[in-house]
Amino acid sequence: SFELTQPPSVSVSPGQTARITCSGDALALQFAYWYQQKPGQAPVVVIFKDTERPSGIPERFSGSGSGTEVTLTISGVQAEDEADYYCQSSDSSGTWVFGGGTKLTVL
Amino acid sequence: QVQLVQSGAEVKKPGASVKVSCVASGYTFTSDHINWVRQASGQGLEWMGWMNPDTGKTGYAQKFQGRVTMTRDTSITTAYMELSSLRSADTAVYYCARTTNSGMDVWGQGTTVTVSS
Questions:
Q1: Quick check: A1 pLDDT over 80?
Q2: In this predicted model, which residue has the larger pLDDT, B75 or A26?
Q3: A39, A45, A70, A106: least buried by Cβ within 10 Å?
Q4: Is B40 at the interface with chain A, CB within 8 A?
Q5: Do B9 and B112 contact (CB within 8 A), yes or no?
Q6: Cβ of A24 under 8 Å from any chain B Cβ?
Q7: Residues 6 or more apart from A69 whose CB is under 8 A from it?
């Protein structure tokens, strides 16, 4: 199996830019996905295939990556963006793994 | 609209089994994989396995090999996840999720499974 590593927490003030990183060897070969989860709710995909944004997800959410690290960037953070964020990837056998999650706090 | 609706909360004793259902609607059930993910209280997301509803083929996380079984009934567009030999550490919310090229893009509402003597 493989692992994805995220920082446990990130804090930003409203209007600033939040960057959440995710690292793991598999990311050099496989796509990354990002999920937002608010308390008591199911996760929602906010970025797929490293950089793609699903319809309905605000433009302030973007994804980037290089080598074994990917980054979720939230520009102009709003209070409603406070949530847990999880990166996800897979290996060639179809095994999926989630990162440990990052709690985004909007100060 | 595309929807996954899961069965209700379960309370089980240690050593028992639980079977959670996930009813799909609004899309062609056999076109996309169903994955199962669980989340213990205050913890992160944990992937359990996937199932191809068209073929019935499955793939399980190594941690759950031998204890989990994922099946489906295409006539009623329902996926199932059965977990056996339950222990207290299996107490969690269990989610089914449709998986497409856009990732796990539709999730069920979650089923709480409590394992307690």
A1: no
A2: B75
A3: A39
A4: no
A5: yes
A6: no
A7: A21, A22, A23, A27
